[in-house]
Amino acid sequence: MTQPLLQAADLRGAARLTTDAVAEALSGWLAPASTTEDPEQASRPERAAGLAVLNGLLGDHLAATGNPLAITMALRQAGVTLPLERLALRARLSRPTPRLLVLLHGLCMNDQQWRRAGHDDADGLAHELGYTPIHLHYNTGLSISTNGRILALLMENLYDAWPMPIERLAMVGHSMGGLVARSAIHHGLLIQRGRLRWPARVADLVCLGTPHQGAPLERAGHGIDLLLGTAPHAAPLARLAGLCSAGINDLRRGNVVPGPASDDGTFRCEQVRLPVGTRCFAIAGCLGSAGEGLKSGLPGDGLVPVDSALGHHDQPERRLDFAPERQAVVDRTNHLDLLSSAKVHGLLRQWLR
Asked: What is the domain class of 2-351 according to CATH?
């Protein structure tokens, strides 16, 4: 029965995928290891990767229909959700420091996938610069604005619960994660009108391969196939790659918050500037050399064009003003390999010192 269900899934059919249908189609390898799986233990990596892909492709529908496969946003460490209450958080963290680093993963990925090819930027920065790394885990199929609003409030809870005064707060977002970070800061500063304290305390924001001006994700799944490779058993989900979740649509346009409705009923992207008072950095990957990527308009890292990752745009009002010394292009590096690049880690170590 699984095969016809997945073949029938397209944009129009997404609304017809019920909770039972999705669960039945993907039961097996997405199921918990046992019915008594401890919620305070990290999920099996293959299950976590599969759920992340499913949520990226279909997460808005899963959330809207109350599907138990929908990921609920959480701040985590070592794959385990952190309690956002001071005493409980102090007991859970092994060595909290006053330097807090929040890492945000990208589309169809999860918090455990910051470790790639034996490398983890979070571990390195914790050891070298004294940061305490916290990972965001979220449903990447929801709109970026929705995730930004939820994160803005979650970050305030983390700020309140941190066991000591925070001296340095930095955020690092890979791909969609950079847009979600920008959205959360925007919501926290402007929408909440100063009621939240944490946004003004963000000292640094680093965006790795973030499509600030959008990414050429086609309905047929161009670019998504690269992300599907993050799940070892994602073959059944490849048939869903034609779906366009709200998150995918936002990523394609570089939306941080929705703009006003246009005449055809769609929403135009509202340009959100970089946050004032925060040092903002941009790193772009390039499959060739940096010069080739900038001159020829090649698709950058295989998913995000170089110009988009650096905030460039032909229209001056849409450009993002990353200072020249806060931009970098990493040669011969694809979108996912930004997570394991020694050059990227060197830049993070230099910028976040």
From this structure: alpha beta
